Amino acid sequence: MQLGPVAQALEAALVASCPGDAPLGLAVSGGGDSMALLCAAAERSGPPVLAVTVDHGLRPEARDEARFVADTCARLGVAHTTLCWQGWDGSGNLQDAARRARYRLIADWAAGQGIAHVALGHNRDDQAETLLMRLARGAGVDGLSAMAPARQSLGVTWLRPFLGLGRADLRAFLDERGQRWIEDPSNEDTRFGRVQARRALDVLAPLGITAEGLAAAAARMASARAALDVATREAATRLACEDRGDVVIDRAGLAALSDEIARRLLFAALAWVATAEYPPRAEALADTMAALITAPRATLHGCLIARHGDRLRLSREPAAVAGKTAPAGAAWDGRWRMDGPAVPGDEIRALGEAGLGLCPEWRASGLPRASLIASPSVWRGGALIAAPLAGFGNGWQARVTTSLRARIVSH
Ligand SMILES: Nc1ncnc2c1ncn2[C@@H]1O[C@H](COP(=O)(O)OP(=O)(O)OP(=O)(O)O)[C@@H](O)[C@H]1O
C-alpha cells in the first residue's frame, strides 16, 4: 500500500533515528499536530507505541483535553499516561517554566518506561513562525536556526518527524480519518507573538515569502550554526584549556579570531564556568571585553575574567557561589562532585576567604586566590574538612563533571 505524506514522514524519521524494535514515545497534547502523530503511529505495524500528555493544570479545560487524548488512545489501542505538573513557584516566565517542566516530566516518564525516543508534533509552519518571531528580536544564526529533526537532551532522543509538513497537511490527514483534535483558543489570540507571526505570513505571501521558504532558510541557518560550532571547538582546542574548573585562554590567539568565533568561545567558557543555561547578552560581553583592555579584571555572568600576562583566566565569581551548599554526595554549583570519606551531614560550600585562611599550602596549587575562594570545600558543621584545590585534600578529591568542549554545541 502506498503511504501518504504523513505516514511517510513518520516512517522516514523512525528509519533515520530509531532502531526498528525500540518502543516509541509520543508527546500528545491533543492539538492537530500531535493527534496526527498519534494516528499515524497507531496505524504502523511495529514496536509498541506509548503516548503521554502533560496536564499543566493552568487552564480549566486541560484535564478534559488529557481525557480526550486518553480516550482516543484507548480506541486506537495505544497505551496512554497523563502526567500532572504542579511545580510552578511563581517566579520567571510561566510559559517557559511550563515548557521546561513538560520536557522534564516526559523525559522522566520515558526513562521509567524504557523509552529512548519520543516524537513531537512540530510542523513546518511552527518552524516558519518561530523564525519570524526571532527575526523580530534581532536574532543571529543560532536563534534563526531550524529545530532539528532529531535531538538529544535529558537522556531522550526527541524526534520531530513533521517538520517538512504544513499544519494543513496534518489536519487534512485527521479529517480523512474523521479524527477530531483540540483547537487551542490561544491560537486565535492576537496578543501572542506566534499568532501575530501566523497572520504576518498571510500578509507576506504575495511577496513570495512562504512557510516553506522560511523553513528552508532556517535549515540553512542550522547548517551554518553546526559549522560555527566546529570552528569554535577547533579554536577552543588551540587556545583554551580547562584548569580545575577555570578556563585559561591565550589572549593573542583570541584577539586574532573572527568576532563571531571569539564570542562563541567566550560564551561557551562563561556558560561552562557558571553552569548557566544561557550565555550572557552579546552587548554585555562586548562591554566586558572592552573594559578588560585597561582593567585587570571584570565580572560577568557569575564569572570573574582576569588578565594574567598573555592569558585570560575565567573563574567562578566568589560572590555568585558564596551561599551555595549541597550535601557531600550531591552536585555542587551544577558541575562539581566531591569524592571522599563523607559522614552524614557533611556539606559542600565555597571555600571563602575564611576557609582559604585555613589552608596554609594554597599557594603551591598555582591557582589564583579568587579561584580558590570560589572552589568547593567540605564542611562538617563549622569545621573545614577538606579543600582539595587549595592543597588541603584530607582524602577528598574535587572533580568537574562536565567539559568545556561539550558546552560548544549551541543547541
Ligand atoms: N501538554 C502536552 N502534553 C504532551 N505533549 C505536548 C504538550 N504540549 C505540547 N506537546 C508536544 O510538543 C509539541 C509542540 O507543541 P507546542 O508547539 O505547543 O510547544 P511549544 O511550547 O511551542 O514548545 P517548543 O518550544 O518545543 O516548540 C506538540 O506537537 C506535542 O508533541
UniProtKB/TrEMBL annotation:
Keywords: ATP-binding, Cytoplasm, Ligase, Nucleotide-binding, tRNA processing. CDD domains: TilS_N (cd01992). InterPro entries: Rossmann-like_a/b/a_fold, TilS/TtcA_N, tRNA_Ile_lys_synt, tRNA_Ile_lys_synt_N. One of its GO terms (cellular component) is cytoplasm. Gene3D superfamilies: HUPs (3.40.50.620). HAMAP family: tRNA_Ile_lys_synt (MF_01161). Belongs to the tRNA(Ile)-lysidine synthase family. This is tRNA(Ile)-lysidine synthase. It comes from Rhodovulum euryhalinum. The gene is tilS.
